[in-house]
């Protein structure tokens, strides 16, 4: 009789393998990490890993998809916030916090590098970026409709600007080992305020 798969157990193992892969990719890079090292990180057999992911590319694809889903869920959740200008400031603060995490920054750099090398990974990253900008534009448009901000540009243009700010933070992290995003939080928030033009509020 075939063994019944418990969906909760399957999901938990899937996520655990992804987390182990993230740790290893951030530590040594995508191409220098072996599947054996990922298995050792979690203490599982190679058969267990390959049951979920046939190769390393499948792992990094799943990481990119997970990142996109989590970002989308976070931004969608902001729609219920009473002050969307404050919610957008909180989002930028979250980005600054993530960029200040050395491990997260290295993983982001690995994903960007692989996206440039592999067309399929690149397409996934591009899709995430498009969804990020689309959801940001919705938030900006709603904040403007509520009278909380008064940007001089369209919501799509403001969303593009916020996305560029995020990209710039991570690019600087990659280029300058001494760069600490958290130390420039007031500067980044001023840049955001310049794009949003909050009504009667300051970051």
UniProtKB/TrEMBL annotation:
InterPro entries recorded: BetI_C, DNA-bd_HTH_TetR-type_CS, Homeodomain-like_sf, HTH-type_TetR-like_transc_reg, HTH_TetR, Tet_transcr_reg_TetR-rel_C_sf
Keywords: DNA-binding, Repressor, Transcription, Transcription regulation
Tagged with keyword Nucleus: no
Cross-referenced Pfam families: TetR_C_6, TetR_N
A molecular function (GO) term: transcription cis-regulatory region binding
Coiled coil: none
Protein name, per record: TetR family transcriptional regulator
Lineage of the organism: Bacteria, Pseudomonadati, Pseudomonadota, Betaproteobacteria, Burkholderiales
């Amino acid at each position: 009789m075939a063994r019944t798969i418990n969906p909760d157990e399957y999901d938990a193992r899937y996520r655990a393998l992804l987390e182990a892969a993230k740790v290893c990719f951030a530590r040594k890079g995508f191409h220098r990490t072996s599947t054996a090292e990922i298995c050792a990180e979690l203490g599982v057999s190679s058969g267990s890993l390959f049951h979920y992911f046939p190769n390393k590319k499948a792992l990094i694809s799943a990481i990119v998809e997970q990142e996109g889903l989590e970002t989308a869920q976070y931004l969608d959740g902001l729609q219920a916030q009473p002050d969307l200008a404050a919610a957008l400031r909180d989002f930028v603060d979250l980005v600054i916090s993530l960029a200040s995490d050395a491990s997260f920054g290295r993983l982001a750099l690995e994903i960007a590098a692989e996206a440039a090398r592999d067309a399929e990974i690149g397409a996934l990253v591009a899709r995430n970026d498009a969804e990020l900008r689309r959801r940001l534009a919705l938030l900006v448009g709603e904040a403007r409709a509520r009278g909380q901000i008064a940007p001089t540009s369209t919501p799509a243009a403001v969303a593009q600007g916020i996305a560029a700010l995020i990209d710039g933070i991570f690019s600087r992290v990659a280029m300058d080992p001494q760069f600490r995003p958290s130390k420039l939080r007031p500067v980044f928030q001023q840049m955001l305020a310049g794009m949003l033009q909050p009504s009667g509020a300051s970051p």
